[in-house]
Amino acid sequence: MKKVAITTLGCKINQFESAAMTEALGQEGFCIVPFGETADIYVINSCTVTAKTDAESRRLIRRAGRQNPDAKVVVTGCYAQMSSSEILELPGVHLVLGNSEKRDIVSLLKEVEETPKAVVSDIMQVRSGESAPLESFAEHTRAFLQVQNGCDARCAYCIVPYARGASRSVSPEEALEGMAGFVAQGFKEVVLTGIHLGGYGLDLNPSTDLLSLLKMAEERIPVPRLRVGSIEPTEVPPEMIAFLAQSQKVCPHLHLPLQSGSDGVLDRMNRGYTTALFREVAEALVGAVPGICLGTDIIAGFPGETDAEFEETYRFLEEVPLAYLHVFPYSQRPGTPAATMPGQVHSKTVKERAEALRRLSEAKSAAYAQSFVGQTLQVLVQKDADGKKGLARNYLPVLVNGGSDLVNREVSVLITEAKGGELVGNLVE
């Protein structure tokens, strides 16, 4: 029985696909071990969103070689899709697989040869959406379901459309079947994910959309909690807001990527919206959905970002009702328009701006959490911590005292304290 270790970089789609690969290999008799242990085969499911993530993939390749010099090293994911020739030249690499080839991981690992080779198809030619088969999930309370892949947008800083291909969706029937399968296994929450989730269904014939899928799930799938991943601010129409306001299943939590609070920077990024639109959507959501948690992505130090434009971003973020920020220092990604733009911001300035935004995020997260002290929240208990740790419907982590029988149950918790962005509470009997 060969031992296989898999490690994952990047997005939730990669996490889902790694879980699917793990399950498929386990079903075929491979022994799955942690990446830090000695294995016969190491699989690095890579990310290529920045040059820094490419470097991290190379570090993991070297680490695998040190752990077992006789092991076969396999690299897949977006870095593999974009730079297969570069990866093949790295010492110890035996096989490079593109994103489409992940589905054939079992047969390909059975045939790993001493001579390095790449099996990478043209992702831009893929037009059908297929969700990797997955019957179980490592986390025993929440499951991620991939319903969309690829992206048709062309943001100036992003290489992902070239690594993931055109936007393509699984059929509503397949998506609903996936949700039902997770519910049958006892999962209490299903998280819908995609590279460009808000573009779900537009490529299908007949076309549909994410809101239609959510409505079908609300009516037909007995899932206690359904969570939506990241969607663009332009993809939250009034009908979506009205649905979220009355939904019994979709959690009051949305991640709306902003990227910059300056209209000038947004224009250079080719984001296709203004700060006014973002503010309108955010305020409408907060006004309609009680307690909703809104998060966002922000890039610090995009090429040409002046001190005045950064100040615009900072002030905008202070004013808009957001609960947290995911802050990304801009990093040049070869192959993107932004990499060759004039006015590249000095790395020291980028770091300083990112740090200022992270401090703002901590303050906003703490204020948002504090607003729930004295309230009772529905918490899905997940695992042992200092007591039991769970997740509220609004995405806040909650510590609650109780026995092991609470795990994978949604319970009522009276919030007594907020510690930063985390809550502490007592079980309501």
Topology of helices and strands:
Elements: E1 3-8, H1 12-27, E2 31-33, E3 41-46, H2 51-67, E4 72-77, H3 78-82, H4 84-88, E5 93-97, H5 105-109, E6 117-119, E7 142-146, E8 148-149, H6 160-164, E9 168-169, H7 172-184, E10 189-193, H8 210-220, E11 225-228, H9 238-246, E12 253-255, H10 263-269, H11 275-288, E13 293-300, H12 307-319, E14 324-329, H13 347-370, E15 376-385, E16 387-392, E17 397-400, E18 410-419, E19 422-427
Parallel strand pairs: 1-2, 1-3, 3-4, 4-5, 5-6, 7-10, 10-11, 12-13, 13-14, 17-19
Antiparallel strand pairs: 8-9, 15-16, 15-18, 16-17, 18-19
Helix pairs in contact: 7-8, 12-13
Q: Would you kindly provide a brief summary of this structure?
A:
One of its GO terms (molecular function) is metal ion binding. Helices cover 34% and strands 23% of the residues. By secondary structure, it is of the alpha/beta class.
Give a description of the structure.
The protein is of the alpha/beta class and 429 residues long. The chain folds into three domains: 3-121, Methylthiotransferase, N-terminal domain (Rossmann fold); 138-370, Alpha-Beta Horseshoe (pyruvate-formate lyase- activating enzyme); 375-427, Nucleic acid-binding proteins (OB fold (Dihydrolipoamide Acetyltransferase, E2P)). The protein is 34% helix and 23% strand. The strands form five sheets. Strands 2-1-3-4-5-6 form a six-stranded parallel sheet, with helices on both faces. A five-stranded mixed beta barrel has the order 15-16-17-19-18. The chain has a three-stranded parallel sheet with strand order 7-10-11, sandwiched between helices. The mean pLDDT is 92.
